[in-house]
Amino acid sequence: MNWKFSYTVGFHPWEDTDQEFFQSLSSLLEQEEQGRNSPYGRALDIGTGSAIWAIELAKRGWDVTGVDFVEKALERGQERVRAAGVEVTLVQGDVTRLSEDQVGSGFRLILDTGTFHDFDTRQQRAMARSVDALATQDATVILLCWPRRIRPLIRGVSRDEIETAFAGWQIADVKPSFFKLPPPLEWLLRPDEHWYRLRRA
Ligand SMILES: C[S@@+](CC[C@H](N)C(=O)[O-])C[C@H]1O[C@@H](n2cnc3c(N)ncnc32)[C@H](O)[C@@H]1O
Asked: Residue limits of the Methyltransferase domain (predicted)?
């Protein structure tokens, strides 16, 4: 997917989620927050885009850093952050080569709503290495993935690929996100999207 082009022309259907999607993410976040008091710790929003979910995390009481490599997306993100009146640190960077200097470390939660699943094998492993280095020992990684399939635009990823890239982690849960695209895209792309929740093995 050419993300820069998408944001330039205003094609970002992933931002048009509904209540059912929101509930599916909320229940995963509740699991991470249960039995703790806010602030919950550091959260890293991988491929944050226009910071929709980074803002939601901040509202819930996480100390959030969002990373994306598309300037236009981050500009929209900054506007949203200002309008929401929350604190979110937005950083321009490549999530396949994140460093502590750039984003810090000690992340208890790593959220990726739609970045990893478009990566090739080399990029998947590089992103997982970055995450592994920046996450706490008790961290949770939440990935939103489409299955690997021949389709335009998004590559998709298999469970095996997730397990191989995130060696040292194990998949604790797989749940549907209920994400739906507008009719022609839904039929063409068949997202069949799922949340993968990973914990260190
Ligand atoms: C499907 S969009 C999701 C955006 C946001 N998480 C959301 O749900 O609204 C994927 C995002 O990943 C970003 N992205 C893709 N590859 C990246 C990379 N190597 N480094 C940083 N960001 C990347 C894109 O710019 C895009 O904003």
From this structure: 44-131
Q: How confident is the model at residue 1 (pLDDT cuts 50, 70, 90)?
A: confident
Residue whose CB lies within 8 A of the most ligand 1 atoms, among 69, 90, 118, 177, for a mutation test: 69
Q: Which residues form ligand 1's pocket by a CB distance below 6 Å?
A: 3, 14-15, 47-49, 52-53, 67-70, 73, 94-96, 113-115
The topology (CATH level 3) of 38-200 is Rossmann fold (3.40.50)
Q: What's 15's DSSP letter?
A: G
Q: Ligand 1: which of 2, 3, 6, 125 to mutate, judged by most atoms within 8 Å of the beta carbon? A: 3
Average of pLDDT values for 193-200?
98
**Protein residue closest via CA to atom 16 of ligand 1:** 115
Q: What is the mean pLDDT of residues 63-89?
A: 98
Check residue 65 and report its DSSP letter.
E
| SS percent in the chain: helix, strand, coil, step 5 | 40, 25, 35
- Report the pLDDT averaged over residues 134-143: 98
Q: Where are the domains of the chain?
A: 38-200
Answer whether 191's CB lies under 8 Å from 181's CB: yes
Ligand 1 centroid – CA 114 distance (Å): 6
